[in-house]
Amino acid sequence: MNSKYKIAIVVSTVVILGGIGYWIFYTPNLADDEVAYVLAGGVTPQSAVISFNTYQPAKVRVQVSAEAVTFADPRYSDYTETTAEKYNIGKAYLDSLQPNTQYYYRLEINDTIDVFEGYSGTFTTPQDSAFSYKIAFGSCMVTGSNSSIFGHIASENPLLFISTGDLHYENINSNCEANFTQAYYRVFNSSAQAELYRSTAFAYMWDDHDYGNNNSDASSACQQQAITAYRDFVPHYPLAFQEDNDPISQTFSLGRVRFILADLRSQKVKPEYDGCERTKVGTNFGSEAHLKWFQDEMLAAKDSGQVVVWLSGIPYINHEGGPNYDCDEDDDWGGFPEERQAIANFVKEHQIPISIIAGDAHMVAMDDGSNSDYAEGGGAPIPVFHAAPIDRYGSYKGGPYSKGYRSSSGQYGTIEVEDDGGDEICLTWTAKDENGNVVQSNTDQELRYQFCLPVSSDSIPTQTSVSL
Ligand SMILES: [Fe+2]
């Protein structure tokens, strides 16, 4: 056979196999019949949001009950219609729920309830006052990851799972709407991820790769479509800002802990450098209004007797002399020292009881505040907990971290909140590996840390540490 024919046969075979692969990969699993995915978010003591995707346009409502098998005494959301123009996605809003109750939900499609498990899920509403609970969080997974780590996260039985960014790695900067639609489909339709998302409540703040390109900012070509897609596809808490190009920042409370999910990507303006000399100051929040919102939320939390968990996707700890510091940093707080110091000064001035959870860097790492005090003259030592990568290679950024770190693939974090209604709230951080075991740090210590923060606005806000 002459070489031209051989090449033609090889090319045809690749095209045919590729076509079959594409069909298998992107064609809905017909056994699933009508529903691509369903998941719950925005869960409060009284309400929840259910997001779903049908394969065909349909009339949908959600049935919810505190009874798992019988769905006795059910409540229903309003009806909604999914349409091809809107990719057959929809949201249902559940209200008048009871606090501290496990609920089971399932979809009614075109007036019929199917018992197929892919149509259903469960979540537990938080208590509406002080209570103790566990959440899990992590960032960074290959698009549509089907890793068994999601099963281990689910078996933690967390009240909430927070994706702290890089929910996918599509790096979308063209054909925006179609690419975001496909990205969310591949994430939520992944069987291993769906099992987790149908087992508990979901919250999500993006980072760079799932908002735009690597180290993306406000200039991303798909900025507006990213924001629109987030609002349409994700079951989220009420957003703080409503205009088309506004950040997706949001807050919610679980007991006496206020979680502040800050969008540090869609409004970001990077610093500029001439060699090592910074010629333009950057901002992660992007506007005075956005930064003021963050400060107001911190202060409101403190004034109402709460402690703050701030989700800052990017590493907070990085500075000259650190193990990974570059003089022209623009992808973590090391490149934004003015804005970081303004935040630290505010924390110091108002004695905000606060800790940070973070992602982005593909490592688990903890700092007790020894390396994170950026207030002028000191006085804002904020504990920092990184948990990543859920399903991605390891890497190490920022630091140093007083409790150590581990940069391996397959890691996540848990936070146990202990709150008996007294004058402090204690948090226990644990870094877990892909099998759900406690991570050994680079210094061969179990990567766990417990600390307590005061809640009474009249108390002396010192942080007490307990070694485990
Ligand atoms: Fe990442």
How would you describe this structure in keywords?
single chain; 468 residues; alpha+beta; Immunoglobulin-like; Purple Acid Phosphatase, chain A, domain 2; 2 domains; seven-stranded mixed beta sheet; 8 helices; 25 strands; 21% helix; 27% strand; globular; binds fe (ii) ion
Q: How does the helix and strand content classify structurally?
A: alpha+beta
**How are strands sequenced across the largest beta sheet?**
12-11-10-22-23-24-25
CATH homologous superfamily grouping of the largest domain: Alkaline phosphatase D (PhoD)
Strand percent estimate? 25-35%
Mean pLDDT: 92
- CA-atom Rg in angstroms: 23 Å
Ligand kinds: fe (ii) ion
How far apart lie the N and C ends? Answer: 71 Å
Q: Uncertain runs with pLDDT below 50, 5 residues or more?
A: 7-32, 459-468
CATH architecture title of the largest domain: 4-Layer Sandwich
CATH topology-level name of the largest domain? Purple Acid Phosphatase, chain A, domain 2
The CATH class name of the largest domain reads Alpha Beta
Shape: globular
Number of helices: 8
Outline the secondary-structure elements:
Elements: H1 3-26, E1 35-41, E2 48-54, E3 58-65, E4 75-76, E5 80-82, E6 89-94, E7 102-109, E8 112-113, E9 120-124, E10 133-138, H2 149-155, E11 160-163, H3 176-189, H4 191-197, E12 201-204, H5 208-211, H6 223-233, E13 250-254, E14 257-261, E15 272-274, E16 277-280, H7 288-303, E17 307-311, H8 337-350, E18 354-358, E19 364-367, E20 384-386, E21 404-406, E22 411-418, E23 424-433, E24 448-454, E25 464-466
The structure holds fe (ii) ion.
